Amino acid sequence: MNIVYMGNSGFAAPSLKKLNQEFNIQAVYTKPARRCGRGMNLKKGKIEKLANKFGIDIRTPHKFDEKEKNYLEKLNPDLIVVVCYGLKIPKYILDIPAYFTINAHASLLPEYRGASPINKVILEGEEKSGITVFKLNEKWDAGDIINKYEIDIEEDETAESLWEKLRHLAADALINSINNIKRGSYSLTPQDDSRATYAHKIRKKDAKIDWNKSVERIERMVRAYYSWPIAYTYLNGKRLKVYKVEIEKKDTNKENGKVVEINRDRGIGVSAEDGIVYLKEIQPAGKRKMNFQDFINGYDIKEGQKFE
């Protein structure tokens, strides 16, 4: 099976590794190296580094054009495989392979189409997630489904831990699906668009804690935005990142956002809509991440102060 791989970021790395072991990877498409740091040096992405290691031809276009179309037509791949690529692929590219172009998406489609499904399933309190392998079309994450691979979401799951599980599941899902395609033992099932939900691209401001929300929503938010962009709040006008919390449902009769308890066993208790959120791991602006005991010892935190 001759394959052209299109991917970007660490999420796509396990799939490239496994596909390279099983099939002939003719070329790898990834985003161009970018300049960063004080020296503005070019920094190659994880996929470009892997492709270099494997000796695979690398393409880094800013967009698809006639040049890329001609290049791919000469390769005449059986499949194009896409994982977390981020570049819009036009129909004249999708239609080049002998079979078609497939994608591994980190949700159980049609739920959570879009850029941030891993964060969104945790934020919404879902009990399951997974990988959907589907045939790409011109609409975002809307093509016919080939297979779904489901896993449970743990009670303490963070976006980081779920990301790690799903990127390895994606690799196995692709191997299985491609072998099924090769054998002809697959089907294409249209998605039910009426059941579609969306996970839009995360902005840093989305991670600001709203103390008027339920304690469960705030706790899920902290896990959903770990390890980026990290949930945050403000105390005395200064940003405080929140990495871990514990919650208790109870009526505090206090204004939401107010510190109602300094508990050296549980944390800094902050009033929310239906209970208390205990801050366990936090990071003041310009300082290291610390546990709540160190924060209590080093900062003038008192009951009655308000987080904004």
From TrEMBL:
Domain Formyl transferase C-terminal: 201-299
Keyword Protein biosynthesis: yes
GO cellular component: cytosol
Positions that bind (6S)-5,6,7,8-tetrahydrofolate: 107-110
Domain of life per record: Bacteria
Catalytically driven reaction(s): L-methionyl-tRNA(fMet) + (6R)-10-formyltetrahydrofolate = N-formyl-L-methionyl-tRNA(fMet) + (6S)-5,6,7,8-tetrahydrofolate + H(+)
Keywords of the record: Protein biosynthesis, Transferase
Annotated family: Belongs to the Fmt family.
Function: Attaches a formyl group to the free amino group of methionyl-tRNA(fMet). The formyl group appears to play a dual role in the initiator identity of N-formylmethionyl-tRNA by promoting its recognition by IF2 and preventing the misappropriation of this tRNA by the elongation apparatus.
NCBIfam families for the chain: fmt (TIGR00460)
HAMAP family per record: Formyl_trans (MF_00182)
Protein name as it appears in the record: Methionyl-tRNA formyltransferase
Native source species: Candidatus Mcinerneyibacterium aminivorans
